[in-house]
Amino acid sequence: MTHVQDPPERADQLVRTLGVPQIVFMVVAMAAPLTVVAGLIPLMIALGNGVGAPLDFVVMGAVLVLFTVGFSAMTPEVKDAGAFYSYVEKGLGRIAGLGTAALAIATYAVLLVSVAAYLGAAAHSVLVTLADVSIPWWALSALCLTAIGFLGYHNIEMSARALGVLLVAEILIVVVLDAAIILRGGDHGLTTQSFTWDAFSQGAVGTGVMFAIFGFIGFEATAVFRSEAKDPDTTIPRATYAAVLIIAALYTISAWAVVVGAGADKVVESATSDPVALTPDLATRYVSLLAHDLVQILLATSFFACVLTVHNVVSRYTFSLGGKGVLPRRFAAVHPRHHSPHVASMVTSGVVFLALAVMALLRLDPVVEIYAWFGGAGTLGLILLLCLTSVAVVVHFRLTPHRATAWKGTVAPGIAAACLLVTLCLVLSNFELLIGSREVAYAFIAFLVAAFVAGAGWALRPVAGRTVDNDSREL
Q: How far apart, in Å, are the Cα atoms of 440 and each of 106, 353, 433?
């Protein structure tokens, strides 16, 4: 396969400083490992397929590895850094591409609002527990968003270093907890029951799979950092594979550790009665009271890392669309000293501030309502984006079969597309349950559909002027 080199750097473009480790740090941070272990896995056990939850991550990990095969084969074909929409535009054309761009911005925007609200709630819990100080969640979210806006305004390496420290800390506490449970033999011995078909097929399998794919959110963001990767045709595929495999392995082992730590015969009851306390209580039981407090602290920092990464992704999508002339070209400005998409970053911060201010005035609960509703909508949007991208990969390589092997260009992405469509059906059938309200569920579905239609409609309009050179100015 011929790899076309990206153009040399210019003074007004983003700097190529990111290698595989830095990109993996950012996308795994977006997946927020501790929030999944402490918050999502107990819900999977309580509302999904019980002790079969670990196998949910294995199944979705396998599907996303197949997706990554086609995604990676397509990477050298796409010189833009618009991630999903650039891939879809390459395979399905400009109309579908800009529809996907609008859908992607809508998806990541609702995810950003979701995790920003939970960040404030997590910080509130830490202050109450450790210092007996009560500050409104929205004030804490605003404070954290200010710090995130500062990092987003500056060079991406500053964000990567901050994420690296936070990510290492939260992964370390997860690994320590997993190791303590496994080495002590769990509640009454280690068991492989979680990895049997009987365990996987019990209860609400669709809900379990739906939560599992939510845990992988962020792995696909590797391509968004193309313009800041040292060798994008090599770095992006390697980072994507690494992110998927790390996330799948960590979550599978952690879910299994939670099951055996609480006891396979008692874990469903424990998760149902108090899902929030399940993982911290296991930390107290198998490690120490200090570990319990560290889990609470690092849960807040985990959300901080997640919000920072999603912020970077949203700002880079808007930066890229500004370069294409779809959004105001000012959005594609690069800071002369920091070499960052500073205007797009500030706009992103402003929109999230405004959204959270409205929800605070409406007195919505940051976890039960904002996080659950917006997080569920983001999950649905992500699955739609994955489906569109897989189809685009297949179409592209069917039209240019000499550019990739049949396995990379057709078979693997075709299987991934079929599996993702099944997952989409499962999510839609359980979407009202995930959101908790039929009216709100329909409103979010309409919002996502409207975003795609608006983007596709915009593609039909002529763009005045010449589009900025995407190879050198996009993300």
A: 16, 22, 11
